[in-house]
What we know:
This protein has about 375 residues and is mainly alpha-helical. The protein folds into two domains: about 1-40 and about 170-370, no CATH class; about 50-145, abc type-2 transporter like domain (abc type-2 transporter like fold). The chain has helices spanning about 1-20, 20-30, 35-40, 60-65, 100-105, 120-145, 170-200, 205-210, 215-245, 255-275, 280-295, 310-315, 320-330, 340-370; strands at about 50-55, 80, 95, 115. The protein has a four-stranded mixed sheet with strand order 2-1-3-4, with helices on one face. The radius of gyration is 28 Å and the shape is elongated.
Amino acid sequence: MRLTNIGNLGVKELRSLARDPIMLVLIVYSFTLAITSxxxxxPETLQKAPIAIVDEDRSxxxxxxxxxxxxxxxxxxxxxxxxxxxxxGIDTFALDIxxxxxxxxxxxxxPTIQLNIDAxxxxxxxxxxxxxxxxILTEVNRFAQAHQMPMRTSPVDLELRARFNPELNRVWFxxxxxxxxxxxxxxxxxAGAALIREREHxxxxxxxxxxVTPFEIMMGKIWSMGxxxxxxxxxxxxxxVEGLLEVPVQGSVPLFLTGTALQLFATTALGxxxxxIARSMPQFGLLVVxxxxxxxxxxxxxxxxxxxPYGIQLIMLAAPNTHYVILAQSILxxxxxxxxxxxxxxxxxxxxxxxxxxxxxxxxxxxATLV
Length: 371
Protein backbone atom coordinates (compact mmCIF):
# COMPACT_ATOMS: atom_id res chain seq x y z
CA MET A 1 0.00 0.00 0.00
CA ARG A 2 2.90 2.38 0.55
CA LEU A 3 3.74 2.71 -3.14
CA THR A 4 0.04 3.05 -3.93
CA ASN A 5 -0.29 5.85 -1.38
CA ILE A 6 2.77 7.64 -2.76
CA GLY A 7 1.38 7.37 -6.28
CA ASN A 8 -2.08 8.61 -5.31
CA LEU A 9 -0.68 11.50 -3.28
CA GLY A 10 1.51 12.51 -6.24
CA VAL A 11 -1.46 12.44 -8.60
CA LYS A 12 -3.33 14.66 -6.12
CA GLU A 13 -0.46 17.16 -6.29
CA LEU A 14 -0.52 17.14 -10.10
CA ARG A 15 -4.25 17.81 -10.10
CA SER A 16 -3.79 20.63 -7.61
CA LEU A 17 -1.06 22.13 -9.78
CA ALA A 18 -3.26 21.87 -12.87
CA ARG A 19 -5.85 24.05 -11.10
CA ASP A 20 -3.28 26.74 -10.29
CA PRO A 21 -3.01 29.00 -13.39
CA ILE A 22 -0.31 31.22 -11.90
CA MET A 23 2.04 28.29 -11.36
CA LEU A 24 1.31 26.95 -14.85
CA VAL A 25 2.15 30.31 -16.41
CA LEU A 26 5.35 30.46 -14.35
CA ILE A 27 6.41 27.00 -15.56
CA VAL A 28 5.74 27.84 -19.21
CA TYR A 29 7.51 31.19 -18.97
CA SER A 30 10.53 29.79 -17.10
CA PHE A 31 11.28 27.14 -19.72
CA THR A 32 10.54 29.20 -22.84
CA LEU A 33 10.77 33.00 -22.75
CA ALA A 34 13.12 33.13 -19.77
CA ILE A 35 15.62 30.90 -21.57
CA THR A 36 15.49 32.77 -24.87
CA SER A 37 15.74 36.12 -23.06
CA UNK A 38 18.75 35.07 -21.01
CA UNK A 39 20.46 33.72 -24.11
CA UNK A 40 19.80 36.55 -26.57
CA UNK A 41 18.55 39.77 -24.97
CA UNK A 42 21.62 40.73 -22.93
CA PRO A 43 24.63 38.98 -24.47
CA GLU A 44 28.09 39.57 -23.09
CA THR A 45 29.47 39.76 -26.62
CA LEU A 46 28.91 42.96 -28.59
CA GLN A 47 25.73 42.93 -30.65
CA LYS A 48 24.12 45.72 -32.70
CA ALA A 49 25.89 48.51 -30.85
CA PRO A 50 25.05 52.03 -32.11
CA ILE A 51 28.06 53.95 -33.41
CA ALA A 52 28.50 57.41 -34.96
CA ILE A 53 31.49 58.49 -37.02
CA VAL A 54 32.85 61.98 -37.69
CA ASP A 55 34.83 61.61 -40.92
CA GLU A 56 37.00 64.68 -41.26
CA ASP A 57 39.37 62.97 -43.71
CA ARG A 58 36.87 61.70 -46.32
CA SER A 59 39.47 59.51 -47.92
CA UNK A 60 39.36 55.94 -49.27
CA UNK A 61 41.00 54.72 -46.04
CA UNK A 62 38.42 56.43 -43.81
CA UNK A 63 35.63 54.98 -45.95
CA UNK A 64 37.21 51.54 -45.67
CA UNK A 65 37.25 51.87 -41.88
CA UNK A 66 33.59 52.95 -41.83
CA UNK A 67 32.61 49.97 -43.99
CA UNK A 68 34.31 47.69 -41.46
CA UNK A 69 31.61 48.37 -38.88
CA UNK A 70 28.76 46.04 -39.76
CA UNK A 71 26.22 43.67 -38.29
CA UNK A 72 25.96 41.74 -36.05
CA UNK A 73 28.47 43.63 -33.87
CA UNK A 74 27.52 47.19 -34.87
CA UNK A 75 24.56 48.92 -36.38
CA UNK A 76 25.20 50.76 -39.66
CA UNK A 77 27.34 53.78 -38.67
CA UNK A 78 25.74 57.22 -38.57
CA UNK A 79 27.77 59.95 -40.26
CA UNK A 80 27.69 63.10 -38.15
CA UNK A 81 29.45 66.46 -38.19
CA UNK A 82 29.94 66.79 -34.43
CA UNK A 83 29.77 64.49 -31.43
CA UNK A 84 26.42 65.51 -29.92
CA UNK A 85 24.29 62.38 -30.24
CA UNK A 86 26.06 60.72 -27.30
CA UNK A 87 24.88 63.48 -24.97
CA UNK A 88 21.32 62.51 -25.90
CA GLY A 89 21.98 58.82 -25.20
CA ILE A 90 21.60 57.80 -28.86
CA ASP A 91 25.06 56.35 -29.54
CA THR A 92 27.33 54.19 -27.42
CA PHE A 93 30.45 54.92 -29.50
CA ALA A 94 31.55 58.02 -31.41
CA LEU A 95 34.62 57.75 -33.66
CA ASP A 96 36.43 60.87 -34.91
CA ILE A 97 38.74 60.34 -37.91
CA UNK A 98 41.00 63.44 -38.14
CA UNK A 99 41.76 65.27 -41.38
CA UNK A 100 44.82 64.03 -43.27
CA UNK A 101 44.53 60.59 -41.69
CA UNK A 102 45.26 58.64 -44.89
CA UNK A 103 48.17 60.96 -45.75
CA UNK A 104 49.72 60.43 -42.32
CA UNK A 105 49.29 56.66 -42.56
CA UNK A 106 51.04 56.54 -45.93
CA UNK A 107 53.82 58.70 -44.46
CA UNK A 108 54.03 56.34 -41.45
CA UNK A 109 53.46 59.17 -38.98
CA UNK A 110 51.21 57.06 -36.67
CA PRO A 111 48.13 59.34 -36.62
CA THR A 112 45.60 59.20 -33.76
CA ILE A 113 41.88 58.47 -33.93
CA GLN A 114 39.64 59.66 -31.11
CA LEU A 115 37.04 57.26 -29.72
CA ASN A 116 34.39 58.44 -27.25
CA ILE A 117 32.47 55.80 -25.28
CA ASP A 118 29.29 56.08 -23.26
CA ALA A 119 30.48 54.13 -20.21
CA UNK A 120 27.00 54.05 -18.66
CA UNK A 121 26.28 51.16 -21.03
CA UNK A 122 28.72 48.84 -19.36
CA UNK A 123 27.90 45.62 -21.21
CA UNK A 124 28.71 47.23 -24.58
CA UNK A 125 31.35 49.73 -23.50
CA UNK A 126 33.58 47.13 -21.86
CA UNK A 127 34.00 44.92 -24.92
CA UNK A 128 33.23 47.46 -27.64
CA UNK A 129 36.54 49.33 -27.37
CA UNK A 130 38.45 46.15 -28.15
CA UNK A 131 36.24 45.39 -31.15
CA UNK A 132 36.66 48.89 -32.56
CA UNK A 133 40.43 48.84 -32.09
CA UNK A 134 40.65 45.47 -33.82
CA UNK A 135 38.52 46.63 -36.76
CA ILE A 136 40.54 49.81 -37.26
CA LEU A 137 43.90 48.02 -37.11
CA THR A 138 42.66 45.34 -39.50
CA GLU A 139 41.48 47.86 -42.07
CA VAL A 140 44.62 50.00 -41.77
CA ASN A 141 46.87 46.94 -42.21
CA ARG A 142 44.82 45.84 -45.19
CA PHE A 143 45.13 49.30 -46.72
CA ALA A 144 48.87 49.35 -46.06
CA GLN A 145 49.37 45.94 -47.68
CA ALA A 146 47.43 47.08 -50.74
CA HIS A 147 49.86 50.00 -51.07
CA GLN A 148 52.89 47.76 -50.43
CA MET A 149 53.88 49.61 -47.29
CA PRO A 150 56.36 47.93 -44.93
CA MET A 151 54.56 47.07 -41.69
CA ARG A 152 56.05 46.10 -38.34
CA THR A 153 55.08 42.49 -37.66
CA SER A 154 55.47 40.38 -34.56
CA PRO A 155 58.14 37.63 -34.70
CA VAL A 156 55.62 35.20 -33.15
CA ASP A 157 52.17 34.29 -34.47
CA LEU A 158 49.60 33.20 -31.91
CA GLU A 159 47.05 30.75 -33.29
CA LEU A 160 43.91 30.54 -31.16
CA ARG A 161 41.55 27.58 -31.17
CA ALA A 162 38.34 27.82 -29.19
CA ARG A 163 37.14 24.37 -28.15
CA PHE A 164 33.53 23.37 -27.46
CA ASN A 165 32.28 26.78 -28.66
CA PRO A 166 34.36 27.74 -31.72
CA GLU A 167 32.11 30.70 -32.57
CA LEU A 168 32.47 32.11 -29.03
CA ASN A 169 28.70 32.45 -29.10
CA ARG A 170 27.30 33.51 -25.75
CA VAL A 171 23.90 32.01 -26.67
CA TRP A 172 25.43 28.52 -26.41
CA PHE A 173 26.42 29.21 -22.82
CA UNK A 174 23.53 31.36 -21.65
CA UNK A 175 20.72 29.09 -22.86
CA UNK A 176 21.97 25.91 -21.19
CA UNK A 177 22.87 27.70 -17.97
CA UNK A 178 19.41 29.25 -17.84
CA UNK A 179 17.84 25.79 -18.13
CA UNK A 180 19.94 24.74 -15.14
CA UNK A 181 18.90 27.80 -13.13
CA UNK A 182 15.23 27.31 -13.94
CA UNK A 183 15.38 23.66 -12.87
CA UNK A 184 16.56 24.75 -9.43
CA UNK A 185 14.15 27.67 -9.18
CA UNK A 186 11.01 25.81 -10.21
CA UNK A 187 11.71 22.67 -8.20
CA UNK A 188 12.15 24.65 -4.97
CA UNK A 189 9.11 26.85 -5.61
CA UNK A 190 6.74 24.06 -6.69
CA ALA A 191 7.63 21.73 -3.81
CA GLY A 192 7.46 24.41 -1.14
CA ALA A 193 4.33 26.01 -2.57
CA ALA A 194 2.58 22.61 -2.64
CA LEU A 195 3.08 22.27 1.11
CA ILE A 196 2.09 25.84 1.93
CA ARG A 197 -0.95 25.61 -0.33
CA GLU A 198 -2.22 22.61 1.65
CA ARG A 199 -1.64 24.43 4.91
CA GLU A 200 -3.52 27.51 3.71
CA HIS A 201 -6.41 25.44 2.34
CA UNK A 202 -6.60 23.27 5.45
CA UNK A 203 -6.06 19.99 3.61
CA UNK A 204 -3.10 19.02 5.80
CA UNK A 205 -5.55 18.10 8.57
CA UNK A 206 -7.37 15.85 6.11
CA UNK A 207 -4.14 14.00 5.37
CA UNK A 208 -3.46 13.49 9.08
CA UNK A 209 -6.64 11.47 9.54
CA UNK A 210 -5.86 9.28 6.54
CA UNK A 211 -3.75 6.08 6.76
CA VAL A 212 -0.67 7.75 5.26
CA THR A 213 2.71 8.52 6.80
CA PRO A 214 4.78 11.74 6.57
CA PHE A 215 7.24 9.83 4.39
CA GLU A 216 4.50 8.99 1.89
CA ILE A 217 3.16 12.55 1.86
CA MET A 218 6.61 13.98 1.25
CA MET A 219 7.52 11.43 -1.43
CA GLY A 220 4.25 12.17 -3.23
CA LYS A 221 5.17 15.83 -3.45
CA ILE A 222 8.75 15.11 -4.51
CA TRP A 223 8.03 12.74 -7.39
CA SER A 224 5.11 14.75 -8.77
CA MET A 225 6.80 18.16 -8.70
CA GLY A 226 10.07 16.64 -9.85
CA UNK A 227 8.31 14.97 -12.78
CA UNK A 228 6.80 18.28 -13.88
CA UNK A 229 10.16 20.08 -13.83
CA UNK A 230 11.96 17.14 -15.46
CA UNK A 231 9.47 17.08 -18.33
CA UNK A 232 9.66 20.86 -18.74
CA UNK A 233 13.47 20.81 -18.76
CA UNK A 234 13.50 18.04 -21.39
CA UNK A 235 11.14 20.12 -23.52
CA UNK A 236 13.26 23.25 -23.05
CA UNK A 237 16.48 21.47 -23.95
CA UNK A 238 15.19 19.79 -27.10
CA UNK A 239 12.68 22.33 -28.43
CA UNK A 240 13.93 25.71 -27.17
CA VAL A 241 17.70 25.23 -26.88
CA GLU A 242 18.38 22.78 -29.72
CA GLY A 243 15.46 23.73 -31.94
CA LEU A 244 14.73 27.43 -31.57
CA LEU A 245 18.16 28.71 -30.52
CA GLU A 246 20.05 26.11 -32.63
CA VAL A 247 22.53 25.29 -29.88
CA PRO A 248 24.36 22.01 -30.58
CA VAL A 249 24.28 19.54 -27.70
CA GLN A 250 27.39 17.36 -27.73
CA GLY A 251 26.60 14.72 -25.12
CA SER A 252 23.81 12.35 -24.13
CA VAL A 253 20.51 14.03 -23.29
CA PRO A 254 19.23 10.97 -21.33
CA LEU A 255 22.39 11.06 -19.20
CA PHE A 256 21.84 14.76 -18.53
CA LEU A 257 18.19 14.14 -17.59
CA THR A 258 19.31 11.41 -15.20
CA GLY A 259 21.55 13.92 -13.48
CA THR A 260 18.65 16.39 -13.52
CA ALA A 261 16.49 13.84 -11.69
CA LEU A 262 19.11 13.60 -8.94
CA GLN A 263 19.26 17.40 -8.77
CA LEU A 264 15.47 17.52 -8.49
CA PHE A 265 15.53 14.99 -5.66
CA ALA A 266 17.78 17.34 -3.70
CA THR A 267 16.13 20.66 -4.57
CA THR A 268 12.53 19.49 -4.07
CA ALA A 269 13.52 18.23 -0.63
CA LEU A 270 15.06 21.65 0.02
CA GLY A 271 11.82 23.30 -1.13
CA UNK A 272 9.78 21.23 1.32
CA UNK A 273 12.20 22.12 4.11
CA UNK A 274 11.74 25.82 3.36
CA UNK A 275 7.98 25.25 3.20
CA UNK A 276 7.98 23.88 6.73
CA ILE A 277 9.80 26.98 8.00
CA ALA A 278 7.66 29.58 6.23
CA ARG A 279 4.20 30.34 7.62
CA SER A 280 2.86 31.94 4.45
CA MET A 281 3.64 32.28 0.76
CA PRO A 282 5.28 35.73 1.13
CA GLN A 283 7.63 34.36 3.80
CA PHE A 284 8.42 31.43 1.54
CA GLY A 285 9.24 33.82 -1.31
CA LEU A 286 11.72 35.70 0.86
CA LEU A 287 13.38 32.45 1.93
CA VAL A 288 13.66 31.33 -1.69
CA VAL A 289 15.43 34.59 -2.61
CA UNK A 290 17.91 34.21 0.24
CA UNK A 291 18.70 30.60 -0.69
CA UNK A 292 18.45 30.75 -4.47
CA UNK A 293 20.77 33.69 -5.16
CA UNK A 294 23.86 32.12 -3.53
CA UNK A 295 23.05 28.76 -5.12
CA UNK A 296 22.98 30.22 -8.62
CA UNK A 297 25.64 32.92 -8.37
CA UNK A 298 28.28 30.86 -6.55
CA UNK A 299 27.71 27.51 -8.27
CA UNK A 300 29.61 28.37 -11.46
CA UNK A 301 26.63 29.03 -13.73
CA UNK A 302 27.54 32.74 -14.06
CA UNK A 303 31.30 32.82 -13.44
CA UNK A 304 33.87 29.99 -13.21
CA UNK A 305 34.33 28.57 -9.73
CA UNK A 306 38.09 28.90 -10.14
CA UNK A 307 37.77 32.69 -10.08
CA UNK A 308 36.12 32.62 -6.64
CA PRO A 309 37.93 32.60 -3.28
CA TYR A 310 39.08 29.14 -2.27
CA GLY A 311 36.95 29.19 0.88
CA ILE A 312 33.80 29.86 -1.17
CA GLN A 313 34.69 26.98 -3.46
CA LEU A 314 34.92 24.60 -0.52
CA ILE A 315 31.65 25.80 1.02
CA MET A 316 29.76 25.51 -2.26
CA LEU A 317 30.74 21.86 -2.59
CA ALA A 318 27.92 21.24 -0.11
CA ALA A 319 25.40 22.75 -2.54
CA PRO A 320 23.77 20.52 -5.17
CA ASN A 321 23.93 23.26 -7.81
CA THR A 322 27.72 23.17 -7.89
CA HIS A 323 27.83 19.52 -8.90
CA TYR A 324 24.86 19.90 -11.23
CA VAL A 325 26.53 22.75 -13.14
CA ILE A 326 29.74 20.73 -13.53
CA LEU A 327 27.74 17.72 -14.66
CA ALA A 328 25.65 19.68 -17.17
CA GLN A 329 28.60 21.54 -18.70
CA SER A 330 30.62 18.33 -19.02
CA ILE A 331 27.82 16.41 -20.73
CA LEU A 332 26.16 19.05 -22.89
CA UNK A 333 29.27 21.03 -23.91
CA UNK A 334 32.09 18.48 -23.94
CA UNK A 335 30.19 15.27 -24.62
CA UNK A 336 31.40 13.58 -21.43
CA UNK A 337 30.11 10.14 -20.50
CA UNK A 338 29.22 8.59 -17.17
CA UNK A 339 32.85 7.57 -16.58
CA UNK A 340 33.75 11.27 -16.37
CA UNK A 341 30.81 12.67 -14.39
CA UNK A 342 30.17 9.83 -11.93
CA UNK A 343 31.68 11.84 -9.03
CA UNK A 344 29.03 14.52 -9.59
CA UNK A 345 26.28 11.88 -9.75
CA UNK A 346 27.50 10.44 -6.46
CA UNK A 347 27.72 13.87 -4.82
CA UNK A 348 24.18 14.76 -5.92
CA UNK A 349 22.85 11.47 -4.57
CA UNK A 350 24.53 11.99 -1.19
CA UNK A 351 23.46 15.63 -0.88
CA UNK A 352 19.93 14.67 -1.90
CA UNK A 353 19.68 11.98 0.78
CA UNK A 354 20.96 14.39 3.44
CA UNK A 355 18.48 17.10 2.42
CA UNK A 356 15.69 14.53 2.25
CA UNK A 357 16.47 13.27 5.77
CA UNK A 358 16.55 16.83 7.16
CA UNK A 359 13.33 17.76 5.39
CA UNK A 360 11.56 14.59 6.51
CA UNK A 361 12.53 15.21 10.15
CA UNK A 362 11.36 18.81 9.94
CA UNK A 363 8.16 17.77 8.15
CA UNK A 364 7.31 15.23 10.86
CA UNK A 365 7.75 17.86 13.56
CA UNK A 366 5.53 20.25 11.66
CA UNK A 367 2.77 17.65 11.32
CA ALA A 368 3.10 16.77 15.01
CA THR A 369 2.25 20.35 15.98
CA LEU A 370 -0.96 20.15 13.95
CA VAL A 371 -2.27 17.04 15.73
